[in-house]
Design a protein that fits this description.
By secondary structure, the chain is mostly helical. The chain has helices at 3-21, 25-31, 36-43, 51-61, 65-69, 82-96, 100-114. The protein has seven helices and no strands.
Length: 115
Amino acid sequence: MTNEILKKLISGKLEFLRKNSGETNEAAADSLDIDLSEFYRILKGHRLPHLKTLLRINRKYGVSMDWWFSELDGAARDKTPVRQKAFELQIAGLVKKLDAKTQEAVLAMLKILVK
């Protein structure tokens, strides 16, 4: 396992998460409290993120450490498909933009649809 393989793996997954959240690079870097140039270097596979940065990314996008490295041993440890997580992140991102009253209305509608 080389650093180059890790950089490629992490950059690809980070790009996937960022695109599916609908955020710009600037917005993602800002919400992670890291410099845009640092975010860009991680995103482009030029450097590995610090552990603290990776933990912040995990919290922001709702992924685990296992998710980042599941391909390395050939067995996906996180049973939630990546596309499903991305879809959930996209919905959450849109709902976050709504005011509280509209969020409650959307939640009520979803509960009705699920029944």
